[in-house]
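The authors assume throughout that readers already know how a fold can be written as discrete tokens. Each protein is reduced to its one-letter sequence and a matching series of backbone shape codes. I therefore recommend that a typical entry be quoted early in the introduction. For illustration, here is how one protein appears when written out as sequence plus structure tokens:
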Amino acid sequence: MNKLFTNLLAVSAIAVISTATAFSDDADALSGKWSLKRANDQGQTSTRILEIKKNKFTFSILGNDDKVALYAEGDIKLEKLGPFNSIKFYNIKAGLSSSETQPVDEERASIYQLGEGSLTVASDFEADRNQKPSLDVYSKAPAAAATTGAMTLFIDKIVMHQTPQVATWFVCFEAKTDGAMQRYRVPNQSFDKDGVTIQMDLKVPNVRAGQSCTFKCQLDDVEDDVCTDDIDNTSSGKFAVTESGSQEYKPEDRWRYTVYWHLK
């Protein structure tokens, strides 16, 4: 997990280039989604997405293929340190995906300053770590886009790399966001063994980039049972919605699948 902690430092110190707003308004000003593209020493680029809602945050790093390489979530607290504004990240959980997080036994505290539309991020100044301090600039979606930017989330497909089913099986998939729930279930549609691609084209309306989508995937060899509580295998997960992306899940030793989505 040490490598995950290092990556997480990109969100540890937040300063926005522009005139500072009043500290009492900072929680509202920080609320929303911030993104950054960054290249590593090998020239490989990644996208970092930080979303803050009230006293909670989520953070994702997406690779060139838009797959989630790191996910973190936790609490934030805004404090005043002399003339500086400080943001503390704590109760952190991090992992390779939102369904595979572990508690992080460390807090992050950073100095920040707020303005309009951009964030200058100063990281790794508050402690001696195996990471050089860095300066990054995050961007925020315009207020108009944040207000009217509801789109449709398409769950394009699921690739079942491995399944715990040994013969013919059926699938039931439910996706939920804050505003809607949709179910994929095709009567009389069955699948066999491993390595199956299930084209779903499931549409979830009124979704914005950065929202969390939770889902439940169920398998059974009896069609009438697959969308009930009397099922053979069930898996729950979630992902941070992006313009397009995919995420792999492994709920059991013999069950591994990838969910693909896009916004339109």
Observations:
- Helices lie at 2-8, 26-30, 143-148.
- The longest helix spans residues 2-8.
- The chain has two domains: 2-142, 151-263.
- The longest strand covers residues 68-81.
